[in-house]
Protein backbone atom coordinates (compact mmCIF):
# COMPACT_ATOMS: atom_id res chain seq x y z
CA UNK A 1 0.00 0.00 0.00
CA UNK A 2 1.47 3.39 -1.04
CA UNK A 3 2.68 5.70 1.72
CA UNK A 4 2.92 9.47 1.88
CA UNK A 5 6.67 9.10 1.15
CA UNK A 6 5.91 7.22 -2.08
CA UNK A 7 3.57 10.03 -3.14
CA UNK A 8 6.23 12.66 -2.37
CA UNK A 9 8.86 10.73 -4.39
CA UNK A 10 6.46 10.22 -7.32
CA UNK A 11 5.55 13.93 -7.37
CA UNK A 12 9.12 15.10 -6.76
CA UNK A 13 8.16 17.12 -3.66
CA UNK A 14 8.66 16.88 0.11
CA UNK A 15 6.43 14.88 2.46
CA UNK A 16 5.48 18.19 4.10
CA UNK A 17 4.16 19.47 0.75
CA UNK A 18 2.04 16.34 0.28
CA UNK A 19 0.73 16.76 3.83
CA UNK A 20 -0.26 20.39 3.12
CA UNK A 21 -2.19 19.26 0.04
CA UNK A 22 -3.94 16.43 1.97
CA UNK A 23 -4.93 18.68 4.87
CA UNK A 24 -5.60 21.79 2.77
CA UNK A 25 -3.31 23.58 5.16
CA UNK A 26 -0.82 26.24 4.02
CA UNK A 27 0.26 27.50 0.56
CA UNK A 28 1.00 25.05 -2.30
CA UNK A 29 1.70 26.31 -5.89
CA UNK A 30 -1.02 25.25 -8.33
CA UNK A 31 1.33 23.17 -10.53
CA UNK A 32 2.78 21.44 -7.45
CA UNK A 33 -0.72 20.66 -6.12
CA UNK A 34 -1.56 19.16 -9.53
CA UNK A 35 1.57 16.93 -9.43
CA UNK A 36 0.71 15.73 -5.91
CA UNK A 37 -2.90 14.93 -6.81
CA UNK A 38 -1.77 13.04 -9.92
CA UNK A 39 0.72 11.02 -7.82
CA UNK A 40 -2.05 10.21 -5.26
CA UNK A 41 -4.28 8.94 -8.07
CA UNK A 42 -1.49 6.99 -9.81
CA UNK A 43 -0.50 5.25 -6.55
CA UNK A 44 -4.12 4.89 -5.25
CA UNK A 45 -2.88 6.41 -1.98
CA UNK A 46 -5.34 6.43 0.94
CA UNK A 47 -4.42 8.87 3.77
CA UNK A 48 -4.15 7.34 7.26
CA UNK A 49 -7.27 8.76 8.93
CA UNK A 50 -5.88 8.45 12.47
CA UNK A 51 -2.69 10.31 11.52
CA UNK A 52 -4.73 12.91 9.63
CA UNK A 53 -7.08 13.43 12.56
CA UNK A 54 -4.15 13.83 14.95
CA UNK A 55 -2.73 16.54 12.66
CA UNK A 56 -6.06 18.28 12.16
CA UNK A 57 -7.05 17.62 15.80
CA UNK A 58 -10.42 16.58 14.30
CA UNK A 59 -11.37 13.50 12.30
CA UNK A 60 -14.10 12.99 9.73
CA UNK A 61 -15.94 10.98 12.40
CA UNK A 62 -19.25 11.82 14.07
CA UNK A 63 -20.24 9.96 17.23
CA UNK A 64 -23.82 8.83 17.87
CA UNK A 65 -25.01 7.60 21.27
CA UNK A 66 -28.20 5.51 21.37
CA UNK A 67 -29.96 4.22 24.51
CA UNK A 68 -30.93 0.75 23.21
CA UNK A 69 -29.99 -0.46 19.74
CA UNK A 70 -32.44 -3.37 20.11
CA UNK A 71 -35.39 -0.94 19.97
CA UNK A 72 -36.23 -0.54 16.25
CA UNK A 73 -36.94 3.17 16.72
CA UNK A 74 -33.28 4.05 17.15
CA UNK A 75 -31.82 2.50 13.97
CA UNK A 76 -34.30 4.71 12.06
CA UNK A 77 -32.70 7.75 13.71
CA UNK A 78 -29.22 6.43 12.92
CA UNK A 79 -30.02 5.83 9.25
CA UNK A 80 -31.25 9.38 8.78
CA UNK A 81 -28.08 10.71 10.43
CA UNK A 82 -25.76 8.51 8.38
CA UNK A 83 -27.40 9.34 5.04
CA UNK A 84 -27.00 13.05 5.77
CA UNK A 85 -23.44 13.12 7.11
CA UNK A 86 -22.03 10.90 4.39
CA UNK A 87 -23.08 13.47 1.82
CA UNK A 88 -20.80 15.87 3.73
CA UNK A 89 -17.85 13.45 3.83
CA UNK A 90 -18.27 12.30 7.43
CA UNK A 91 -18.55 8.77 8.85
CA UNK A 92 -20.65 7.58 11.78
CA UNK A 93 -19.51 5.65 14.84
CA UNK A 94 -22.30 4.43 17.12
CA UNK A 95 -22.25 3.73 20.85
CA UNK A 96 -25.03 1.70 22.51
CA UNK A 97 -25.17 3.19 26.01
CA UNK A 98 -27.84 0.88 27.47
CA UNK A 99 -29.25 3.89 29.34
CA UNK A 100 -26.34 3.51 31.81
CA UNK A 101 -24.23 6.51 32.87
CA UNK A 102 -20.84 4.67 33.18
CA UNK A 103 -21.22 3.18 29.70
CA UNK A 104 -22.25 6.56 28.31
CA UNK A 105 -19.15 8.19 29.84
CA UNK A 106 -16.90 5.43 28.41
CA UNK A 107 -18.24 6.10 24.92
CA UNK A 108 -17.88 9.86 25.29
CA UNK A 109 -14.23 9.30 26.24
CA UNK A 110 -13.75 6.95 23.26
CA UNK A 111 -15.26 9.55 20.94
CA UNK A 112 -12.88 12.20 22.30
CA UNK A 113 -9.86 9.88 21.93
CA UNK A 114 -10.85 9.40 18.29
CA UNK A 115 -11.13 13.17 17.80
CA UNK A 116 -14.76 12.99 16.67
CA UNK A 117 -15.80 16.25 15.06
CA UNK A 118 -19.25 16.21 16.70
CA UNK A 119 -21.65 14.13 18.79
CA UNK A 120 -25.35 13.38 18.47
CA UNK A 121 -26.85 11.85 21.61
CA UNK A 122 -30.23 10.29 22.51
CA UNK A 123 -29.22 10.08 26.15
CA UNK A 124 -31.62 9.42 29.01
CA UNK A 125 -29.56 11.69 31.23
CA UNK A 126 -30.28 15.12 29.82
CA UNK A 127 -30.23 16.64 33.28
CA UNK A 128 -26.52 16.01 33.85
CA UNK A 129 -23.64 18.21 32.75
CA UNK A 130 -21.47 15.53 31.15
CA UNK A 131 -21.86 17.11 27.71
CA UNK A 132 -21.08 20.67 28.78
CA UNK A 133 -17.28 20.73 28.49
CA UNK A 134 -16.65 18.66 25.38
CA UNK A 135 -14.35 20.06 22.68
CA UNK A 136 -16.79 19.19 19.89
CA UNK A 137 -20.38 20.36 19.36
CA UNK A 138 -23.26 18.21 20.66
CA UNK A 139 -26.83 17.84 19.38
CA UNK A 140 -29.48 16.19 21.57
CA UNK A 141 -31.87 13.99 19.64
CA UNK A 142 -35.29 12.69 20.76
CA UNK A 143 -34.30 12.88 24.45
CA UNK A 144 -33.52 16.57 24.50
CA UNK A 145 -32.20 19.44 26.57
CA UNK A 146 -33.94 22.75 25.95
CA UNK A 147 -30.89 24.98 26.28
CA UNK A 148 -28.80 22.70 24.07
CA UNK A 149 -29.20 22.22 20.29
CA UNK A 150 -31.99 19.63 19.98
CA UNK A 151 -34.24 17.79 17.55
CA UNK A 152 -37.36 16.10 18.88
CA UNK A 153 -40.94 15.17 17.96
CA UNK A 154 -44.07 16.84 19.33
CA UNK A 155 -44.89 14.26 22.00
CA UNK A 156 -47.61 16.32 23.70
CA UNK A 157 -49.52 16.66 20.43
CA UNK A 158 -48.96 12.96 19.79
CA UNK A 159 -50.51 12.00 23.11
CA UNK A 160 -53.49 14.29 22.53
CA UNK A 161 -53.92 12.87 19.02
CA UNK A 162 -53.85 9.25 20.24
CA UNK A 163 -56.44 9.88 22.97
CA UNK A 164 -58.83 11.75 20.69
CA UNK A 165 -58.60 9.12 17.93
CA UNK A 166 -59.41 6.36 20.41
CA UNK A 167 -62.47 8.17 21.86
CA UNK A 168 -63.63 9.27 18.40
CA UNK A 169 -63.82 5.57 17.52
CA UNK A 170 -65.95 4.68 20.52
CA UNK A 171 -63.62 3.56 23.34
CA UNK A 172 -65.00 4.42 26.82
CA UNK A 173 -62.93 2.33 29.27
CA UNK A 174 -59.44 3.58 28.43
CA UNK A 175 -56.13 2.37 29.86
CA UNK A 176 -52.86 4.23 29.30
CA UNK A 177 -49.46 2.57 29.61
CA UNK A 178 -47.37 5.42 30.98
CA UNK A 179 -43.76 5.26 29.78
CA UNK A 180 -40.59 5.64 31.91
CA UNK A 181 -40.93 8.54 34.37
CA UNK A 182 -37.35 9.71 33.72
CA UNK A 183 -37.95 10.22 29.98
CA UNK A 184 -39.34 13.53 28.76
CA UNK A 185 -40.53 11.83 25.57
CA UNK A 186 -42.70 9.41 27.55
CA UNK A 187 -44.01 12.09 29.90
CA UNK A 188 -44.91 14.47 27.08
CA UNK A 189 -47.09 11.94 25.25
CA UNK A 190 -48.70 10.78 28.54
CA UNK A 191 -49.45 14.36 29.63
CA UNK A 192 -50.80 15.21 26.17
CA UNK A 193 -53.21 12.27 26.37
CA UNK A 194 -54.51 12.85 29.92
CA UNK A 195 -54.93 16.59 29.37
CA UNK A 196 -57.30 15.86 26.48
CA UNK A 197 -59.14 13.04 28.31
CA UNK A 198 -59.65 15.21 31.38
CA UNK A 199 -60.87 18.13 29.27
CA UNK A 200 -63.39 15.78 27.62
CA UNK A 201 -64.28 14.24 31.01
CA UNK A 202 -63.35 10.74 29.81
CA UNK A 203 -62.28 8.33 32.54
CA UNK A 204 -59.04 6.42 32.18
CA UNK A 205 -56.76 4.06 34.12
CA UNK A 206 -52.96 4.09 34.16
CA UNK A 207 -50.35 1.33 34.21
CA UNK A 208 -46.96 2.68 35.31
CA UNK A 209 -44.02 1.25 33.31
CA UNK A 210 -40.29 1.81 33.66
CA UNK A 211 -38.90 0.84 30.24
CA UNK A 212 -39.59 0.60 26.53
CA UNK A 213 -37.92 -2.79 26.12
CA UNK A 214 -39.30 -5.95 24.50
CA UNK A 215 -38.34 -7.99 27.59
CA UNK A 216 -40.43 -5.86 29.96
CA UNK A 217 -43.30 -5.15 27.55
CA UNK A 218 -44.80 -8.63 27.96
CA UNK A 219 -44.91 -8.11 31.73
CA UNK A 220 -46.70 -4.75 31.38
CA UNK A 221 -49.22 -6.31 28.96
CA UNK A 222 -50.12 -9.13 31.39
CA UNK A 223 -50.41 -6.66 34.28
CA UNK A 224 -52.72 -4.45 32.24
CA UNK A 225 -55.26 -7.20 31.47
CA UNK A 226 -55.08 -8.59 35.03
CA UNK A 227 -55.91 -5.16 36.47
CA UNK A 228 -58.25 -3.87 33.75
CA UNK A 229 -59.73 -6.91 31.92
CA UNK A 230 -62.69 -4.86 30.62
CA UNK A 231 -60.70 -2.06 29.06
CA UNK A 232 -61.89 -1.27 25.51
CA UNK A 233 -59.17 1.17 24.45
CA UNK A 234 -55.42 1.15 25.12
CA UNK A 235 -52.80 3.84 24.55
CA UNK A 236 -49.34 2.20 24.56
CA UNK A 237 -46.18 4.13 25.46
CA UNK A 238 -44.46 2.95 22.26
CA UNK A 239 -44.88 0.39 19.48
CA UNK A 240 -42.79 -2.26 21.24
CA UNK A 241 -45.18 -2.18 24.21
CA UNK A 242 -48.16 -2.02 21.84
CA UNK A 243 -46.97 -5.20 20.09
CA UNK A 244 -46.83 -7.01 23.44
CA UNK A 245 -50.32 -5.75 24.35
CA UNK A 246 -51.66 -6.92 20.98
CA UNK A 247 -50.08 -10.35 21.48
CA UNK A 248 -51.60 -10.73 24.96
CA UNK A 249 -55.03 -9.45 23.87
CA UNK A 250 -55.20 -12.00 21.04
CA UNK A 251 -53.98 -14.74 23.43
CA UNK A 252 -56.90 -13.85 25.73
CA UNK A 253 -59.26 -14.20 22.77
CA UNK A 254 -60.17 -10.53 22.42
CA UNK A 255 -61.40 -9.31 19.02
CA UNK A 256 -59.28 -6.42 17.74
CA UNK A 257 -60.58 -3.77 17.07
CA UNK A 258 -64.19 -4.88 17.72
CA UNK A 259 -63.75 -5.55 21.50
CA UNK A 260 -60.60 -3.57 22.09
CA UNK A 261 -58.83 -0.75 20.24
CA UNK A 262 -55.08 -0.15 20.50
CA UNK A 263 -52.83 2.76 19.47
CA UNK A 264 -49.02 2.65 19.69
CA UNK A 265 -46.36 5.38 19.41
CA UNK A 266 -43.33 5.58 17.06
CA UNK A 267 -44.48 3.72 13.91
CA UNK A 268 -41.43 1.47 13.72
CA UNK A 269 -41.25 -0.52 10.42
CA UNK A 270 -42.48 -3.71 12.18
CA UNK A 271 -45.82 -2.11 13.18
CA UNK A 272 -47.39 -2.36 9.75
CA UNK A 273 -46.45 -6.08 9.62
CA UNK A 274 -48.21 -7.01 12.88
CA UNK A 275 -51.55 -8.84 12.53
CA UNK A 276 -53.74 -6.89 12.66
CA UNK A 277 -51.43 -4.05 11.59
CA UNK A 278 -50.96 -1.48 14.37
CA UNK A 279 -52.58 1.94 14.39
CA UNK A 280 -50.04 4.29 15.89
CA UNK A 281 -48.60 7.79 16.18
CA UNK A 282 -45.72 8.22 13.77
CA UNK A 283 -42.59 10.02 14.95
CA UNK A 284 -40.59 11.01 11.82
CA UNK A 285 -37.51 9.17 13.14
CA UNK A 286 -35.55 9.09 9.85
CA UNK A 287 -36.17 12.80 9.24
CA UNK A 288 -35.38 13.59 12.90
CA UNK A 289 -32.00 11.93 12.33
CA UNK A 290 -31.40 13.94 9.15
CA UNK A 291 -32.32 17.20 10.88
CA UNK A 292 -30.02 16.41 13.80
CA UNK A 293 -27.16 15.73 11.36
CA UNK A 294 -27.82 19.01 9.49
CA UNK A 295 -27.90 20.90 12.80
CA UNK A 296 -24.63 19.32 13.95
CA UNK A 297 -22.87 20.12 10.67
CA UNK A 298 -24.00 23.76 10.94
CA UNK A 299 -22.44 23.83 14.42
CA UNK A 300 -19.23 22.16 13.15
CA UNK A 301 -19.01 24.74 10.36
CA UNK A 302 -19.59 27.49 12.96
CA UNK A 303 -22.57 28.85 11.04
CA UNK A 304 -24.74 31.47 12.74
CA UNK A 305 -28.42 32.46 12.71
CA UNK A 306 -30.19 29.12 12.47
CA UNK A 307 -32.84 27.33 14.58
CA UNK A 308 -31.20 25.26 17.31
CA UNK A 309 -34.34 23.66 18.79
CA UNK A 310 -36.28 21.76 16.15
CA UNK A 311 -39.67 20.27 17.09
CA UNK A 312 -41.01 17.95 14.38
CA UNK A 313 -44.69 17.11 13.79
CA UNK A 314 -46.20 13.68 14.46
CA UNK A 315 -49.19 12.08 12.72
CA UNK A 316 -51.84 9.41 13.37
CA UNK A 317 -51.32 6.32 11.21
CA UNK A 318 -54.67 4.51 10.97
CA UNK A 319 -54.36 0.77 10.44
CA UNK A 320 -56.46 -2.10 11.81
CA UNK A 321 -56.19 -1.97 15.63
CA UNK A 322 -58.70 0.90 15.59
CA UNK A 323 -62.22 0.97 14.19
CA UNK A 324 -63.17 3.13 11.24
CA UNK A 325 -64.89 6.29 12.43
CA UNK A 326 -68.09 5.56 10.49
CA UNK A 327 -68.23 2.04 12.13
CA UNK A 328 -68.61 3.76 15.47
CA UNK A 329 -71.87 5.27 14.20
O1 LIG B 1 -39.44 3.34 21.48
C1 LIG B 1 -38.41 4.11 22.03
C2 LIG B 1 -38.95 5.38 22.57
O2 LIG B 1 -37.91 6.06 23.19
C3 LIG B 1 -39.51 6.22 21.45
O3 LIG B 1 -40.87 6.51 21.68
C4 LIG B 1 -38.65 7.43 21.44
O4 LIG B 1 -39.40 8.61 21.56
C5 LIG B 1 -37.68 7.27 22.55
O5 LIG B 1 -37.78 8.29 23.48
TrEMBL record:
Name assigned to this protein: Catabolite control protein A
Domain of life: Bacteria
Pfam family for this entry, one: LacI
Transmembrane segments: none
Gene Ontology MF, one: DNA-binding transcription factor activity
PROSITE patterns (UniProt xref): HTH_LACI_1, HTH_LACI_2
SMART domains according to UniProt: HTH_LACI
Record key words, sorted: DNA-binding, Repressor, Transcription, Transcription regulation
InterPro entries in UniProt: HTH_LacI (IPR000843), LacI/GalR-like_sensor (IPR046335), Lambda_DNA-bd_dom_sf (IPR010982), Peripla_BP_I (IPR028082)
Record CDD domains: HTH_LacI, PBP1_Qymf-like
Keyword set includes Transcription: yes
First and last residue of the signal peptide: none
